[in-house]
Design goal:
Layout: E1 2-3, H1 20-30, E2 36-38, E3 44-46, H2 48-56, E4 61-62, E5 64-66, H3 73-85, H4 92-119, H5 137-145, H6 150-162, H7 165-174, H8 177-197, E6 205-210, H9 237-241, E7 247-257, H10 262-271, E8 275-283, E9 298-306, E10 320-322, H11 333-342, E11 347-350, E12 360-362
Parallel strand pairs: 2-5, 6-7, 6-11, 8-10, 11-12
Antiparallel strand pairs: 1-4, 2-3, 7-9, 8-9
Helix pairs in contact: 1-2, 4-5, 4-6, 6-8, 7-8
């Protein structure tokens, strides 16, 4: 034992002492689990936080370990460094395991406190006298005990509960709980979408491809002077805005448009309550060229989202692609193959020109 006033703390590299109150609370219950360390001249080697916690508890003496062989400043500094670096905190999965054990021990005590409160005349819970589940304060108390935030600890527990050894190892190795938890949520969404994929062709969809009948007129051509109108009924912007698109809570949406109707397409996304993300570009070999303007050899598929859908993969996933032209307004199979590869769930192709594998059809032009 050493008188705390005799310990020479001197200049230390650690400036942030952290939660001294929690350490003091632990020491008041369990005592000093790890003595502080000093050299024969009473210069502090390790334990400044323990000393401050002891002072807050009113202790005048503290257990210490005397370390010999630290005869110069370099050796003393090296010892201070090693005491703070040659140690290992709980990994997140270890912290979850510790929290679960602590919670098992803490819950009965919390129940006892609830019962004692009722006996002392406290207002009973709304459940008519039945005690509610123990949570909230107990969970926070356990989280503090393992030195973690309760919300983050819950996320880590969800990752551990998944049983995915690779994901748990990634969380423990990187220390990034949010990344592992987001991956878990992503997988859950994809799996839920896959389950919906086998549902009957009605209700809501996880993927929607929309190729609207824009309010356009076919340009007169010398070779076919008798075709001066579009071969299908068109819709005005207000009519398109009034469409009821059967989207699930989380839905991928691709809206096809041309250069001319690009501003209208962006307005429609807003009117449908969708969040624009990016634009996919189909580069075609040859296309219409207005007088005095470049050849318009591409079309656009604006990608937008309802909610927070996730892609099954983003490998070799590009916004620009080449594909041959088909019939008037017909979209290439390369596009649909890409959508099938990166999405899961039920898919609908609205105003489609042909039946597409993996998509339900909606429109009056598909055979």
């Amino acid at each position: 034992m050493i008188d705390i006033s005799q310990i020479k703390i001197g200049s230390r590299c650690r400036k942030e002492l952290g939660d001294i109150e929690a350490l003091a609370a632990s020491m008041s219950v369990h005592g000093l689990l790890q003595p502080v360390a000093v050299d024969p001249k009473n210069r502090l080697v390790a334990g400044q936080r323990r000393i401050e916690a002891a002072k807050s508890l009113g202790w005048t003496e503290i257990a210490c370990h005397v370390v010999h062989g630290l005869d110069d400043a370099l050796a003393l500094l090296a010892a201070e460094n090693d005491e703070n670096t040659c140690r290992k905190d709980f990994t997140w999965s270890e912290a979850v395991a510790m929290a679960e054990r602590l919670e098992l021990l803490e819950k009965p005590k919390a129940k006892e406190r609830q019962i004692a409160g009722l006996k002392q005349g406290n207002k009973p819970p709304r459940s008519g006298g039945k005690l509610p589940p123990v949570k909230g304060k107990t969970r926070e108390k356990v989280a503090v005990a393992v030195g973690k935030k309760a919300r983050t600890l819950d996320k880590a527990a969800a990752v551990v509960a998944s049983g995915d050894a690779a994901l748990i190892a990634r969380m423990d190795t990187t220390g990034k709980v949010d990344g592992a938890h987001q991956e878990l949520q992503k997988r859950a969404k994809i799996e839920a979408a896959k389950q919906r994929e086998t549902a009957p062709p009605d209700g809501l969809y996880d993927v929607a491809v929309i190729d609207p009948p824009w309010p356009m007129e076919k340009i007169l051509r010398d070779c076919r002077p008798n075709q001066d109108t579009i071969d299908y009924p068109t819709m005005t912007e207000d009519e398109l805005a009034g469409l009821s698109i059967p989207m699930a809570k989380d839905c991928h949406v691709w809206l096809w448009t041309t250069h001319h109707f690009l501003p209208m397409a962006l307005r429609l996304l807003d009117r449908w309550g969708l969040k624009y993300v990016c634009t996919f570009v189909w580069r075609k070999a040859g296309a219409f060229q207005p007088v005095g303007l470049p050849q318009l050899n591409c079309e656009f598929a604006l990608y937008a989202r309802k909610g927070a859908p996730v892609f099954t993969t983003t490998k070799d996933f590009f916004v620009c692609f080449d594909a041959a032209r088909g019939a008037h307004s017909e979209k290439p199979e390369e596009f649909y193959a890409m959508v099938r590869r990166v999405t899961a769930g039920r898919r609908i192709d609205m105003f489609n020109r042909r039946k597409i594998e993996g998509f339900d059809a909606w429109g009056n032009e598909a055979s």
